[in-house]
Predict the structure.
Amino acid sequence: MTMLRAAARITLPDPVAVLRPLCEHLVEHEAEVSEADGVTTILFGDSRAELRTEPGSLSVVIEAPDLARLQGSKFAIASHAVEFAPEGAALTIRWSGDGAEPMLPPDFRVLTVTGVEQLTPRMRRIRFRGGELARYDSLEALHVRLFIPPAGLAEPVWPMIGADGLLQSPPAEQRPAIRKYTVREIDAAAGTLAIDFVLHDDAGPGSAFAARVQAGDRIGMAGPGGRGLKHAERYLFLADETGLPALARMLENLPMSATGLALVEIADAAERQPLAMPDGVSLRWLHRDGAAPGSTSLLTDALATLDWPAGEGSLYLWAACEHAAFREIRAAARQYLRPEIDAHLVVSYWRAGVSEEQHAAEKRKAA
């Protein structure tokens, strides 16, 4: 296999003091770290980085099988060197070798709107066309980051990877808003995908984009990320509108022999939409009927009425909803699910009364 190669010398007043927490942090993110003869080796899957401390600098050489993994490894090393460097340190990074010129991130795609479909009064499906979409066609990583340009901007400006290996953001007035969404449908061979957007009265960047979108509009996409469907004998799904697109995609990809239950909170009966699923999976819609999103306990009340039988095969619990419901569902999962038999993924997609940026910051701090 032909490997791509990049090298850098990162100037640091005390490189040893930065290398240690850098390695510890990457181990927490599933990198493999070893040291021999003064060389620290970090393995990111098929990518390999060798780091040496020198007086006043950290020498880095990275090899990877493709540009995406090379740039990902460069970013991991460079960004954490910046993070762990002493405050005010004069730090410079410049890469040579493959991928040294400024470029779009390898996992970044520009999507063009091809059509819009109104699924329900509050749910709109937008269809896109883009190139090289195979990496996004996964049930194990359902989510992407969308880069939504400011309204009225004649030509979108995208983030670029600079010569230092770090992400360079556009000027504030041109900077896209970044929001996480779920790939609802994808045909990688045809270069098409669809994403469902909830339309809100107090529209954020994603909802506002969906409300005004026209064919030919462009947005950016990066990813994929997150976790998704796991194999089990039985399934229990819980979601509100924000989690419905991910839930719908998982339901239609379950094996035909699957059994389980899906509980879905929506505004009212008009928000129901047809969902494909195996005959052994039941669907129960929970209507707020005028109550504000995030103000009810419909999901947790429904969960409390269920039995948690043991000995009927493994159970996979998946939930995506508002933060208060998330906390109760996660607590129930930890109490009732059986270690080494059952599995769960319970995620807070939003928090009532808190902006998406604040909510994301809270989750990062908790993590």
